[in-house]
Here is the input.
Amino acid sequence: MCDNTSTKPCEGFSMDTVNELRKRVGGLGLKYFIETYGCQMNEHDSEKLAGMLRECGYTKAETKGEADLILFNTCCVREHAEKRTFGNVGFIKELKAENPRLILGVCGCMMQQKEVAKKLFDRFPFVDLVFGTHELSRFPQMLLEVLDEARVFQVTESDGEVVEGLPVERTEGFSTFVNIMYGCNNFCTYCIVPYVRGRERSRRPADIVNEVSKVVAAGYKEITLLGQNVNSYSCDGLDFPALLRLVCSEVPQLKRLRFMTSHPKDLSDGLIKAMSELDNLCKHIHLPVQSGSDRILKAMNRRYTSGAYLELVDKLRSAVANVEITTDIIVGFPGETEEDFEATCELVRKVGYSNAYTFAYSPRAGTIAARMEDQIPEEVKKRRLNQLNAVLAETIPSNNDKYIGFEGEILVEGVDHRGEPLLFGKLSNFKMVYVEGDESLVGSFLNVKVDGYRFNSLFGHIIQG
Ligand code: SF4
Here is the structure.
């Protein structure tokens, strides 16, 4: 839901704060290093932190060793994340001894878990700054306090807000991200995200169009609209398909528009229609299924059945030419029987994904699933993960036969130097294609014809447009 009363100009990022910081650090040649863990949301948050630092007079360091400010932007979705973060932060103690003016900050999803953040802050007195996901825009203000010799701990338990106008230092390249919404209301029983990212907040369509226009004017050719559940986007009377139509019509120079992530329960006919009708909207959807067993889907609180999911897949395939579907799957969720697991393998065989991210379930403290009985032994989870990956290793390549002779357009992302140098880039539907060609073609759109494949990658040659 769009709560526009919470759409504020950035409070923490006032020009007064920036000017004060510039006065203090501008001209000193200070450098920053940001280490990012986790998903695209976190990557994009790091681009915003880098943008704020740029405005304050910092430049980017190539290594932690040459940095005057190190930020760890943490994730808590994967197993052992806490242990790894604590280990990495502990390692910085030596750098602090070598460079007394070095500032160390830790932020991101893990720091939004107040008890974990407090533990880290107390255990490592050399950490100068700890802040949660809801404090991102106040970063310059907190940095100013640290420069005044304070240790700062700022973690508020709120549903978050929408803050516009933050500067962004985008990773160089041809593809970039634009947030359309924040937070999640779904509370899948295994997931920590709603607890650390707050409730759903949608950005105003005008702000999104404005940012997309600027990014395209800066030379980016492919934009991914980001949200934990883009299908619940809703603001100023626009739903997600309407937003996609608006972006495509207002910014016609944008050649490729992508989005992620889509929750299957909210995938509407309107979205499928938009995908079939809008030329610039890419023909790929990441549609996390998580399990093929209705019993387990219910226990996960996913609110769809395997049958409903397969119906969506059919609708997508019949309406959107050359569409490809990727997914996320968890094996070994509490209570998962061999029969449940086999239902997942069966669904994978039926769908024919072009790629899948597979995980063995691991409990996240504070979630409902972590407290469930019938946790599955590690060796069983491991065996099921291997079995599932073997099913994917069979089904993914067999999906590629249809590409022999296929002609399409790729956006060249770079050169693969592992063997004979090959250009690589994705088709609109996210299939990666490798072709011979000159390095000067990186960043351009090329028409290619596919001659063969290896696992989930296609190989071909350049053809005339
Ligand atoms: S939809 Fe479910 S898995 Fe995705 S972020 Fe929300 S709670 Fe987590």
Summary: The domain at 4-154 is CATH 3.40.50.280 (Rossmann fold).
